[in-house]
Amino acid sequence: MEAGQISGTYGELSGFSVPVSGEVREKKLLEVCIYTVTTGWTQVDLVRGSRLHYTQDWTLISDANDHRSFRNILPSGPPTPVSAELLSRRSPVGHLRAVVRETGGHQLLEIWDPHGLRKCLDLTSLSKHGRVYDEAQFGCLSWSDCENKVLYVAEKAKERSSDPVSTTIFTDRNVYREDWGEALTNQSVPVICVVDLRSGTLSVLEGVPSDVSAGQALWAPGGQSLYFVGWYHEPFRLGLKFCSNRRSALFRLDLNGNCERLSEDNVSVSCPRLCPDGSTIIYLQGAVFGPHSQCLSLQQMDLKRMKTSTLIEVVDRPQTGEFAGVYEALASCCWSEDGQRVVFSSACRNYRDVFVVDRRSKKVSSISDKSVRVYGGWKLLTIHRDLMVVCCSSPNTPPTLVRQHTLLETDMSEPVKSYDFHWTSLDVVPSPEEDNSAYSGLDFGAVLVKPTTSLTEAKIPVVVFIHGWSLSADINQLLTEPITWSFSLFVSSVNYRGSTGFGQDSILSLIGQIGSQDVKDVQRAVLTALQTDPALDPKRLAVIGGSHGGFLTCHLLGQYPDFYRAGASRNPVINAATLLGTSDIMDWRYTSVGLQFSYDQIPSAVALTTMLQRSPITHAAQIKAPVLLMLGAKDRRVSPHQGLELYKALKSRGSDVRVLWFPDDGHSLSRVDTQADCFLSTVLWLQQHL
User: Fold this and answer.
1) Are strands 106-113 and 97-103 parallel, antiparallel or unpaired?
2) Is 57 an annotated catalytic residue?
3) pTM for the complete prediction?
4) Given the DSSP bridges, would you call strands 460-466 and 536-546 parallel, antiparallel or unpaired?
5) pLDDT for position 409
6) Is 547 in the active site?
7) Catalytic residue among 134, 474, 587, 635
8) 448: closest CA among 476, 428, 470?
9) Is it true that the peptide bond before 190 is cis, omega within 30 degrees of 0?
10) Which of 54, 155, 152 is nearest to 110 (CA)?
């Protein structure tokens, strides 16, 4: 492709809309029941350099006495743009909507009814708290069942001087405030806030333990108490984004300030969800420390007897073709109508599926048809009266909405376009020499995407994509960059041992083996792909990755210097020893190399040596391929100086190396303009060197 074609193709693919939320409203008439499905979408706009948000409605009509039989699905109307909404939630009955909106530097709480705006509070002017939290880690917006109260979480207000002469001076202006790390840098001390809609009063609840940061709150039945997840922040905070291994617990707090812990101690907890009748609450539970993405158990608590039991156990080693465990957050609505089943999405080997667990039998079943892999990635958006709204996609099909009821499936939205690629899932078995004796017999996988026909008679170059630690590699769903490459390149995305979706044993097998087992797994997957497809060019290979994937990219370039022709790495770990004091997840720096972590730990020569020996910097002198480094200056997880350390090592040896520096971006390099720049720069880099 020419540069203009590449830019146009990237613009087309990155501009596909993605559904991110859903809700269902129901209206009963004499003979029919009308469901309105409202979905929230995001879309990249390269002209504005931003992400747009909009909603779209579908109308489903069923027989009044048979909710599983739909007479018709009416086409959706034009999308409705959503402006400056931080949080939005419909009331239990469905006639009211609460919205937290930011405009003119102020945050407002709006209450809407069928006739328009009913009430609006200027939260900023009330000065009861700081900014409202709008992200998934702490953020929430919950209605009481009487629809008279709304709660949310915000930053605690800064203390002011008691001196009447200097009432505008903050007493703690220059005091260091801990935060929760990467992507949560403005969040330090959350508070739970309640608005009484009858009186219009706003109150900040007391009673949350002083060593706990509260979030993910929801009302208990009756509206006189609430449940929340509390993350322990003593002796100091560690990074929380993408980390399901932080010590936390489920608490109950009443409006009088009485608080009690409901879950076990010394575990991690997230995603509390009440069943429809309010008798049971479920939540995800995991281990503290260790890998920051793990297989989780699903717990259920009988709120009348106050007894907790395990609904889904941690899956150590799944059987072939069977459920592999829970690895993802629960949807906000995940209960069946009768309260006997819970629906959730999770990675399963190289795929993402939607599963349902029956509370009576504890049996877990997949709702997707594995015999026909039209879609590789399934994600539950919401469920209402057993009507599930699911987002589906595959490497050659943009996100599509599917209406799912038991085992009946109907497309609600037609894919905008599908692409002429061949994609498949590859299972890879390590060689006997590469087997991990402590976790023997584990395999891993890869997702392969290939143009159906080569653009030339020459063999097809290969690009190897390597995911970071926090999620399973590029599941079989539409991902903009790998698919754009697939117009002229063969793409291999590798799920090395340690990836989620393959059981807890696979994750734990990587502890103490980074820089070795994972590197060999990627290389083994590439060799397997080359052996199975003679159309691939073994002399034209490039490797690309970010975070831990960037770490592996640099390892591969150094450990196999004559194998790869070019590499590109985003915010890579280069020297784990020098990263120790600057990363927001310093516990992982110890754990990853097989060492125990404790808060009061002082680095030792042995620990630092072990970290250094596992790092790509030890192989820098062997790197021959040209290297492109893309670094976010605001990265709190992997300091951008890690990349600069490799840059200097290569530059001093006369190697071909280039750095892209993004002053306003962090670890994920997620700004729209950053992503476009990274992709196009990588394309030109590979065109030049591959």
Assistant:
1) antiparallel
2) no
3) 0.95
4) parallel
5) 46
6) yes
7) 635
8) 476
9) no
10) 152
